[in-house]
Design goal:
Layout lengths: L13 H13 L5 H13 L4 H12 L4 H17 L4 H10 L4 H17 L4 H9 L6 H10 L5 H11 L4 H20 L8 H12 L12 H11 L3 H8 L4 H13 L16 E7 L5 H6 L3 E11 L2 H10 L4 E4 L9 H4 L4 E6 L10 H10 E14 L7 E3 L5 E4 H10 L4 E12 L2 E10 L1
Parallel strand pairs: 1-2, 1-4, 2-3, 4-5, 5-7
Antiparallel strand pairs: 5-9, 6-7, 8-9
Helix pairs in contact: 1-2, 2-3, 3-4, 3-5, 4-5, 5-6, 6-7, 7-8, 7-9, 9-10, 10-11
Length: 439
């Protein structure tokens, strides 16, 4: 319903529309209220170019292919309505993808924006970032004009140089962290999470885990699997020789067998479970492997942060229910907490996105039945490392075995099985992991 349909004024005045635009423009985030305000304005003034551009941005942040197509169309319409407005061209460029055809349109649009407004730093940074090689003249021009307070553009420069020039990458990320920490201490709100995101990426390019970060940014994980979901299974299983679900089920069988190694060729005596929870279920590779352990009529819940991965998991049909949530807070989601206590909780190759596992262990402890089992994998960190967990250059965490044992002790869980193994390949090398079964 329009913001004016329930008022006495059938047609808003110019002042009403101006006030509505100012309200929508000043609102933060991408929520329903802001979306409704922009749509109301466009209902009465469909040729409001800036509102069309803002609607394009709002829809693009709703993560769907349909929204993306409409977003690009709206952004193009906005430019056609006000071709002299360089800011609309920059907004459109932000919505373009990374395919070769999209990049060419993005670059030509940015060049047009700079032709209209040569001093537009945002367009300069985006044009630099869209190239494969560093244009030193452009970079020198940008660094000569950009202020330290322009943290958004420094963050983008850090991202651009992450795989090109580590010294420059560190410089820009460190500047973002320093400036944002000062702003936060002064009472500002970091709505875009730039401080935490810059800290995370800085940790991936520093050696020895000297930058303390506890988790991968939520937006990074969602974005990673948004594009990866269609080819995930083939890439992981066929190319990287991913075996974690199979190996974890074998470790679980050993754990329920009192830790006695299984004789080759013998079928393990496996338990059945009435209620199973799969943390970070992805496309359901782990669910497919563990589905056979579910008792008839039992509940098998899958949780993942990526909507696209959950679509694939549902297609597999191995879960009775799936939920889009992070694995730290999912234990308090109504439908999940009402299914608890769980007899078995599994987590295959998901703790690579978390360093500090305290919140997960707390949730697991609260959600396990009295005789419940928690089985999971981590990538293994050398015991002589300085920290309990480290974020590596591949943007994945590895953990010490002693850290896992200490967590188990802290939360009153018994280690019934623990073994080192090769989880998968990465760049042709073995990725060594640790399989753990707790009760």
């Amino acid at each position: 319903m329009s913001a004016y349909q329930d008022s006495e004024h059938a047609d808003p005045t110019a002042a009403d529309l101006s006030a509505l635009w100012n309200r929508a423009r000043k609102m933060s985030g991408y929520g329903d209220d802001r979306l409704a305000a922009v749509e109301s304005l466009l209902e009465y003034n469909p040729n409001h170019a800036r509102a069309k551009s803002l609607l394009a941005i709002l829809l693009a942040n709703r993560d769907s292919t349909k929204n993306r197509s409409r977003s690009l169309s709206l952004a193009r319409e906005a430019i056609s309505l006000r071709p002299e407005d360089a800011a609309l061209k920059v907004a459109f460029a932000r919505l373009c993808g990374d395919s070769e055809s999209a990049l060419e349109e993005k670059r030509s649009t940015l060049r047009a924006a700079l032709a209209q407004d040569p001093g537009c730093l945002e367009a300069s940074v985006m044009l630099l970032s869209s190239g494969q090689s560093v244009d030193e003249a452009v970079y020198e021009d940008i660094t000569g004009r950009i202020s330290d307070d322009n943290v958004q553009l420094h963050y983008e420069l850090g991202a651009y140089f992450r795989k090109r020039d580590l010294a420059r990458c560190r410089h820009h990320y460190r500047l973002v962290v320093r400036v944002m920490k000062g702003k936060i201490e002064a009472g500002a709100v970091d709505r875009k999470g730039l401080c935490s995101k810059a800290s995370f990426w800085l940790a991936t390019v520093e050696k020895g885990g000297e930058i303390a970060v506890d988790r991968c940014p939520r937006e990074y994980v969602i974005g990673l699997y948004k594009g990866f979901a269609p080819t995930f299974d083939d890439t992981l299983v066929e190319k990287l020789h991913y075996r974690t679900p199979q190996l974890l089920r074998e470790a679980l069988a050993k754990g329920t067998n009192g830790g006695v190694p299984l004789v080759e060729g013998d079928a393990p005596e496996e338990m059945e479970y009435d209620r199973i929870l799969d943390l970070g279920c992805g496309t359901g590779l782990s669910g497919e492997r563990f589905r056979g352990l579910l008792s008839p009529g039992g509940s098998f819940l899958g949780v993942d942060l990526s909507p696209e991965m959950l679509v694939k998991a549902k297609e597999r049909g191995c879960y009775t229910s799936t939920y889009c949530n992070d694995i730290e807070t999912c234990f308090d989601v109504g439908a999940i907490s009402s299914t608890a206590p769980f007899d078995l909780i599994i987590a295959c190759d998901v703790f690579v996105y978390l360093g500090n596992l305290d919140k997960v262990f707390d949730g697991v402890k609260r959600s396990l039945s009295g005789n419940g089992t928690f089985a999971f994998s981590v990538e293994l960190l050398d015991e002589d490392a300085k920290y309990n967990y480290v974020c590596h250059s591949a943007a994945r965490f590895s953990h010490k075995q002693e850290y896992i044992r200490q967590l188990a002790a802290d939360y009153g869980l018994e280690v019934v099985q623990q073994s080192k193994c090769v989880l998968r390949k990465n760049a042709g090398a073995d990725v060594i992991g640790l399989l753990t079964v707790l009760r």
